[in-house]
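Help! Submission page says 'invalid entity' but I think these are all valid:
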Amino acid sequence: MKTLWLRSAMIGLWFAFLTLPLVGFRTDFLEKTFEFRPWPLLGVFAVTSLFAFGWSFISSRPAEEKGLFEAFGPVSGVQQRLTSKPTLLVLLALMLVLPLVTSGYQTGILITALTYIVLGLGLNIVVGVAGLLDLGYVAFYAVGAYSYGLLSQQFDLGFWVVLPVAGVLAALLGILLGIPVLRLRGDYLAIVTLGFGEIIRLVLENWGEVTGGPSGISGIEKPSIPGVTLDFQQQNQFLYYLILGLAFLAIWVNHRLQNSRLGRSWLALREDEIAAEAMGINLTQTKLKAFALGAFWAGVVGVFFAAKSSFINPASFTFHESAIILSIVVLGGMGSIVGVVIAAVLLILLPEYLRFLQEYRMLIFGAVMVLMMVFRPEGLIKNPRPLYRIPKKDGPS
Amino acid sequence: MPEWASYLVEIFFSGLTRGSIYALIALGYTMVYGILGLINFAHGEVYMIGAFVGLIFASLFSIMGLPIWAIFVLAMLAAMVWSGAYGYTIEQVAYKPLRKAPRLAPLISAIGMSIFLREYVILAQSADFRAFPAMFESLPDLGDFGDFLQPSELVIITTVFVVLAGLFYLIKFTKTGRAMRAIAQDREMAMLLGVDADKVISMTFILGSALAAIGAVLISTQMGQINYNIGFIVGIKAFTAAVLGGIGSIGGAALGGLVLGLTEAFAAGYLSSDYEDVFAFMVLVLILIFKPSGLLGKHHVEKV
Amino acid sequence: MFVRPLVLPLVLGFCWFSTGLFAADTLKIGVAGALSGDLAPYGIPPKNAVILAAEQLNQQGGLLGQQVEIIAVDDACKPEMATNAANKLVASEVVAVIGHICSGATKAALPIYAAAHLPVISPSATSPELTLDGAYPLFFRTIPHDAAQAVVQADFIKDVLKAKTAVVVHDKGDYGKGLALLVAEELKKRHVKVLMVEGVTPGAVDYSALIRKIRRAKPDVVAYGGYHPEATKIVTQARKRRIHASFISGDGIKDPSFLKIGRQYVEGYYATSPRDLGKIRLTQQVTEDLAKRNQRPGNFGLQAHAAFSALVNAIKAAQSTDPDKIKQQLQSQQVETTLGSITFDPMGDVVGAGFSVYQVQNHEFVDLHFQLK
């Protein structure tokens, strides 16, 4: 026990030392002021030592009592429970009814969450299932949004027309990106895709004559049902149902893809590229298809985003976005659709509902991300390989 | 000297200055990648923290009235110590538990850590731009040569080259360096041979972070102000440089940094400053298309 | 078990309730702007100024017999966050909004306010289209827009600085680039040769390449569009490399930090900014009151305070919060504010708060009393 206390105190001291200059000192050399603040340091010392103590205490307990971490239970259990018929039906009913009973603000947040669900599902194809680390996914999102912005402004094309067009455009761009990176291994692929994402954003920012530069494009048309005029509230609700429909579509398509031949070849690609090639999988085609299909969803959602915001500029398409979408996929569990949905809801709704924490909001968000990974590196829902249980025959054999 | 030639030389020195800073920080990325196979996204924030620690101590010492060179050296040392400490702690908290985890988990952990550190500095210090003591003021003017090169640039370039030389010596000729190379090559085998993997890994993080701190203090002095966001852009650029040169290769990081810096400077100086970043990334893509492992990267033959 | 499937919906429902609003009998006014992120230094002072004004108003009995409640939302100057913030304010049933701070965020949020028929007064969004487009009849601002500012800069450059050549630099941001391009256009109209228009990436490691490029071009004037951090970095490096051109920028640099951090390198720097308000008694009073709370007016705090005053005045005069009546009052009445006596023109722009040209002399911004022809 005593060593435990000592160790915790040492850890506390270490953190106090660590935060000494940044938390303990306040200085302004122009004003020639210097301030030493011991109390926050003491606070850091106290909190971290207590935390360290609690942590060691829990980990020193016998294994069965660690139940806290196994709360999610065996993988198939959670997934089964969450996707069971009654749960899904209740959820469906709730989702359909929500915009009619809540305020525009809440609906707005849910629209954002659903947008990220579709984005997460799209990236899930590339990263989660096919194992291709794409750090520039936001580029396709931007392409979709700007396609709608520009096409609707210059050529007066409607929302419904541009929706598939932008998706196809993004898919083509995905293939374009895929071709030069076919030969690249894991992390080189990551940086090239990152560079690609940045290039797109920079071009959007600087090619002012076409894209409007940093001032972006404003006054973009909202989607409408031909012949029907909607007021503002109804517009919002219409947008909600639209993205809800897109989300369902994405879930369905993803589900079917994963269980298809293409999906299985992606899984093989992810697990071991060389073995997959040895088994006769055409690496080039498989990779390009992954990029294209993933990009397609981003393009489609991009159109939706532009229509919803009616104003877009390059500041919405930074690396930070790609990082968040990637986090959604990894947090959810590579390849798991249910996981991606939960992770998207968590990562998007959390900062909104943490608003009451004011300045500490993003601090906690970052900490939560780290903690989630440390405690559950495989993601919320481990992606199980398809399992076929042979049903037991009843009665005497 | 004809005008076009002197301009060329000037732009060259601009690129060299920029490139040396990129190289310094790229080293941190490349060393960690070489040993752990991990892209340390939080490295840019360690750079930023180094700048802030440097600022705090430089302010403290300047208020105390120490001579400029003392302030510079002491602030730099302080920045190195604390950056190293932060690098060490980040590794222990965010990466060590994930050594056996799937490849992407430490990446996301790094991203989360990066967000956390930025907010931490905003809360602990401020979100505003803070003035950094200008310590290069008292440097002598370089006279005629001063047309090409600013004294501060000279200091930056020479410091980085000295550091690089020192690092090279460390890696090639010392026991610690040998241990690092061993762990990078084959961790299990090195452990079997008696190398303490944890110690070496920690050393790597500390070293990389200290290097970043040097770069941070140098550039912050040059720029005159810092804020919590400076780590972001530098981080991405330096990481690009590391990959460009061949990630995992120390020489590659240095070369990559220089190539990137020079590309940007020439693009800005001769084309348009608007597109300097685009050029940098395009060069990266081009180089990787023709040399998928980067300029000096070793082509890993994957055995089945 | 029936309980488990309900867990997720219950959690969501809890979240919904926890952010639900409790109705109270107050007059709600929204304040939207960057309260976090890079541009928070521009968004926090306006919020503080409005809160100060509201508290003082409440002490005097409130507005229309009710206490005024300020609802502040953060948009970090990002368009998507701005739409969320706008939705939140609309859902909170505010009668008017003071904000947003950045033009981009304002552009994103206006359709939401327009649909909700709310009057919006911005203390700092200077993008000309916001009013000149005519798309948002209920949008006003207490700061002249960039096109006007560009004219002042260009005239000053031509007539006072008598420049023949100029270099225009910007920070690739919405405000900075917008203003810079407008200035470049105005300069061309006045036959001043614009040698180059270049952008810098804020936060880049080094600007020496661009500085050297500028030195090679030897312009008479460098016009920079952007905020003070980059401006100080650029002018410091330029002066160190013996570039002798005059530097001029817009209101984005007129901040005490510019003087503090720039020290001797910003001597002689010109800036266009709303008129010097230090002599107006109300302004002095407000500045003092803010100082008592350890707050400063910042770049746009006084504009925000003026916006609030104008709004309150209009509501009082119309004895209602009806948006059209408010608009009518704003455009017909003069109101005494921290900016002087102002009113609003038919497009929503402020009248009476013009621009002045300042120069840094002896570590202070000095009004040069430059008159537009």
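Support: the input was valid. A stray whitespace character was the problem, and the output above is from the cleaned input. The interface with chain B takes residues 36-38, 40-41, 172, 198-201, 203-206, 208-210, 212-213, 216, 228-229, 232-233, 236, 240-241, 257, 260-261 of chain C (CB under 8 Å).
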